[in-house]
């Protein structure tokens, strides 16, 4: 396993009594979300768990993992982040990225002022949104986000366009 893990979802709630769970993807997800991946990590230090099933439902996604067999077990995991090893994924196309690649990046204004770090990426339907230090939310659109530089570990934004969103 590589040392680069991607946060892909959070555990929201049990689904039924047999250990299935509702999960909330970090970033936009379609019906193929997690298809083809055989293992997932619960938390950064978690051991890989085999994916038994993943299904899109009206309210979101339902995940079943090997070894989790009751709603009580799921209750203990509420709020946990699910990860996959970055090495398990194909490389994205140029100017594309995985939402999980953005978590932890510095957010920097055009002026050079560091504004915080991306703590979460989630989808609103219209666009993905960056959560910065758990207090500010910035839509991930070209009008606000001027550059994403994974090599430098930063996202450059135009604060003149979004000043009120940073308060």
Description:
The chain has 2 domains: 84 residues, RimM (Elongation Factor Tu (Ef-tu), domain 3, Beta Barrel), CATH 2.40.30; 68 residues, SH3 type barrels. The chain is 8% helix and 44% strand. The strands form 2 sheets. It has a 6-stranded antiparallel β-barrel. Strands 10-9-8-7-12-11 form a 6-stranded mixed beta sheet.
- Unreliable runs, pLDDT <50, ≥5 residues? none
SSE run = EEEEEHEHEEEEEEH
Number of helices: 3
- The best one-word shape is elongated
Roughly what is the average pLDDT, rounded to an integer? Answer: 86
Strand content is 35-45%
State the assembly state of the protein chains. Answer: single chain
CATH H level, superfamily name of the largest domain: RimM
Structural class: mainly beta
Measured between the Cα atoms of the first and last residue, the distance is 39 Å
Biggest sheet statistics: 6 strands, antiparallel, barrel
Highlighted features:
elongated; 3 helices; SH3 type barrels; mainly beta; Elongation Factor Tu (Ef-tu), domain 3; 167 residues; 6-stranded mixed sheet; 6-stranded antiparallel barrel
Lay out the secondary structure:
Blueprint (H helix, E strand, L loop, with lengths): L4 E11 L4 E6 L13 E4 L5 E10 L2 E6 L5 H6 L4 E5 L13 H4 L3 E4 L4 E10 L4 E5 L3 E4 L5 E5 L4 E4 L1 H4 L5
Parallel strand pairs: 7-12
Antiparallel strand pairs: 1-2, 1-6, 2-5, 3-4, 3-6, 4-5, 7-8, 8-9, 9-10, 11-12
């Amino acid at each position: 396993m590589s040392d680069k893990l991607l946060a892909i979802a959070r555990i929201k709630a049990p689904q039924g009594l047999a250990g299935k769970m509702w999960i909330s993807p970090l970033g936009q997800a379609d019906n193929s979300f997690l298809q083809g991946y055989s293992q997932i990590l619960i938390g950064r230090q978690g051991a890989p768990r085999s994916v038994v099933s993943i299904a899109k439902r009206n309210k979101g996604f339902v995940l079943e993992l090997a070894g989790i067999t009751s709603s009580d077990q799921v209750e203990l995991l509420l709020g946990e982040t699910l990860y996959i090893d970055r090495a398990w994924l194909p490389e994205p196309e140029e100017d594309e990225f995985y939402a999980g690649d953005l978590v932890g990046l510095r957010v920097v204004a055009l002026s050079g002022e560091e504004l915080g770090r991306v703590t979460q990426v989630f989808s609103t339907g219209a666009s993905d949104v960056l959560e910065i230090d758990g207090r500010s939310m910035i839509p991930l659109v070209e009008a606000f986000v001027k550059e994403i530089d994974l090599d430098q570990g930063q996202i450059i934004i135009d604060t003149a366009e979004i000043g009120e969103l940073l308060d």
